[in-house]
């Protein structure tokens, strides 16, 4: 199993790139959002990877964070969702957007991805809603797994990305705090997702306060 690749980009296409790892070239497919965040040809890149194995096909998919990789794994476990649809969803929403949409049961957001119809979008939300808290609590980028040099490379990638890593960390910390307070994982995930959607740049304390207000009994 190939779980991570670090090497030089030999060329880029619309949905994949060729990474040279000590003279061996690996074709790695990525979401549109991830492709936009990666450096140019000739530069070094580090990606988590997932290997698709079929009788007539071996295909690698690349991700800059463990959260994105985990959502790809979960999305492709849903009946009717292949790798192409998973990358379309991740490319449209980003991993944090997928977390929010599924935690809130917002299948219309999932349906916005190219090639994803309403039935598939509803199935994704229904099948994965209980998985959202665990994924939201995950941390980890390629920087965490590869040390200082890779961290510097990924800083460039993250700077080009429209979804800041700090937002994901704040959501995970807020979710952990609510779990420690005894809130059910599904309720906590929904509240944190809604709070993060209302204030994308909010830090952990603000997210916790906003989520607690949402979880407070009405009446």
Automatic annotation (TrEMBL):
Gene name for this UniProt entry: ruvA
Self-association state and partner proteins as the record states: Homotetramer. Forms an RuvA(8)-RuvB(12)-Holliday junction (HJ) complex. HJ DNA is sandwiched between 2 RuvA tetramers; dsDNA enters through RuvA and exits via RuvB. An RuvB hexamer assembles on each DNA strand where it exits the tetramer. Each RuvB hexamer is contacted by two RuvA subunits (via domain III) on 2 adjacent RuvB subunits; this complex drives branch migration. In the full resolvosome a probable DNA-RuvA(4)-RuvB(12)-RuvC(2) complex forms which resolves the HJ.
Cross-referenced Pfam families: HHH_5, RuvA_C, RuvA_N
Region of interest called Domain I, as start-end residue ranges on this chain: 1-64
Subcellular location: Cytoplasm
Protein task: The RuvA-RuvB-RuvC complex processes Holliday junction (HJ) DNA during genetic recombination and DNA repair, while the RuvA-RuvB complex plays an important role in the rescue of blocked DNA replication forks via replication fork reversal (RFR). RuvA specifically binds to HJ cruciform DNA, conferring on it an open structure. The RuvB hexamer acts as an ATP-dependent pump, pulling dsDNA into and through the RuvAB complex. HJ branch migration allows RuvC to scan DNA until it finds its consensus sequence, where it cleaves and resolves the cruciform DNA.
Keyword terms: Cytoplasm, DNA damage, DNA recombination, DNA repair, DNA-binding
Domain DNA helicase Holliday junction RuvA type residues, every copy: 1-62
InterPro entries cross-referenced by the UniProt entry: DNA_helicase_Holl-junc_RuvA_I, RuvA, RuvA_C
Highest taxon in the source lineage: Bacteria
Region listing for Domain III, in residue ranges: 168-219
Family, similarity comment: Belongs to the RuvA family.
Protein name: Holliday junction branch migration complex subunit RuvA
Main location: cytoplasm
Residues annotated as domain Holliday junction DNA helicase RuvA C-terminal: 170-216
CDD domains xref list: UBA_RuvA_C (cd14332)
Taxonomic lineage of the native organism: Bacteria, Pseudomonadati, Pseudomonadota, Alphaproteobacteria, Rhodobacterales
Notes on the domains: Has three domains with a flexible linker between the domains II and III and assumes an 'L' shape. Domain III is highly mobile and contacts RuvB.
GO biological process, one term: DNA recombination
Gene Ontology terms: cellular component: cytoplasm; Holliday junction helicase complex; Holliday junction resolvase complex
Organism: Roseobacter insulae
MF term (GO), any: ATP binding
């Amino acid at each position: 199993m190939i779980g991570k690749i670090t090497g030089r980009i030999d060329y880029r296409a619309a949905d994949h790139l060729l990474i040279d790892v000590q003279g061996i070239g690996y074709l790695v497919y990525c979401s549109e959002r991830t492709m936009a965040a990666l450096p140019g040809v000739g530069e070094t890149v580090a990606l988590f990877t997932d290997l698709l194995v079929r009788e007539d096909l071996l295909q690698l998919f690349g991700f800059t964070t463990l959260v994105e990789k985990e959502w790809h794994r979960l999305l492709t476990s849903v009946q009717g969702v292949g790798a192409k649809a998973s990358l379309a969803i991740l490319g449209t929403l980003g991993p944090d957007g997928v977390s929010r949409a599924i935690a809130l049961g917002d299948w219309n957001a999932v349906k916005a991805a190219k090639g994803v119809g309403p039935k598939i979008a509803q199935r994704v939300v229904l099948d994965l809603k209980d998985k959202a808290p665990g994924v939201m609590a995950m941390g980890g980028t390629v920087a965490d797994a590869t040390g200082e040099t890779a961290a510097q490379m990924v800083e460039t990638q993250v700077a080009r990305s429209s979804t800041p890593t700090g937002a994901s960390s704040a959501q995970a910390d807020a979710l952990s705090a609510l779990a420690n307070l005894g809130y059910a994982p599904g309720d906590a995930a929904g509240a944190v997702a809604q709070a993060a959607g209302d204030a994308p740049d909010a830090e952990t304390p603000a997210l916790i306060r906003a989520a607690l207000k949402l979880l407070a009994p009405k009446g």
